[in-house]
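Why does residue order matter? Because the sequence determines the fold. Keep that principle in mind as you read this record.
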Amino acid sequence: MRIHRIAALGAVTLALVLSACSSGGSSTTAPAATTQPASSAPESMAPESMAPAIASQLVLGGPPECPQRPFCLEGLQSLYGLQFKDFVALDAGGPLTVEALKGDNIQVGLLFTSDPAIAANGFVLLQDDKGLQLADNLVPVVSQKLLDAHPDVADLLNGITAKLSQDALTGLNKQVTVDGMSSADAAKGWLTANGFLPGAGGESMGTITVGSTNFYEQEILGELFAQTLEANGFTVNRKFQLGNREIVFPALEAGEIDILAEYAATALEFVNGGAGEATTDAAATVAKLNEHLAALGLKALDAAAATDQNGFVVTQDTATKYNLVKLSDLGNPAP
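Structure:
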């Protein structure tokens, strides 16, 4: 969950998100880096040999509240059994964390799973193999009225989410924010490479309005949807950068837009008033989301593998040195 999305959740959901330490995005004013002990618990030991675990040799960096948050250091300790050498308080997935990783001042950092800095710097996103994070998988939310009139829209959009991997979304974000491509050009390149363009063509299939919040990733996703629909005979109106979720979601409910890229856990906690129903399971979270959306005349389609949520990354050098692929690897014996 990123800062731009958190602001849209309102007071109830904001409390939930803060407890999860899922604030995302770079802050306009980053806090100064400070260091504090990672934990008062004993040094992390690998059970096979009782030798110190890899985590005990590494420094973790993240937002100041990370040690007390269940989806940050607290969760890494309780779910994965990891004890780090130290913790450095930085920012919430922002430039301080990126620079600390690049400078080897920390070896593990909290970024957000679709952050373009991961692709730009060749960082390795460690797989959350035990399911620590809530399932903020990308999911299209669509007007049920549109789906009733054009059932094929679901097939077209589900085709996109079926191919949208984590690396693909991060790469698209990098193309726009780092390489300077337009959202439209980045989307066109990906759609062409993955066989969505050119489409089946056709004329007079109807007019569809695709919306987005004021976030570059949302505009890229909106372009993926819009260009695919246009290639299959629909006329598409784009209403991008409309504002935060508190503005855009009501527009979706009111029929002012027909399609919005959403994030499963965040969307669920928005529509349920922060009831805590989101889980680490994407399919279950989308199913629960649809229970709430039905009364609003909306439907969530299939979730992508791509997410935008808390993630823990290392440099390629650190990954190679310690043979790291997933978070549980940090519990292996240190070499």
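The chain has 14 helices and eleven strands.
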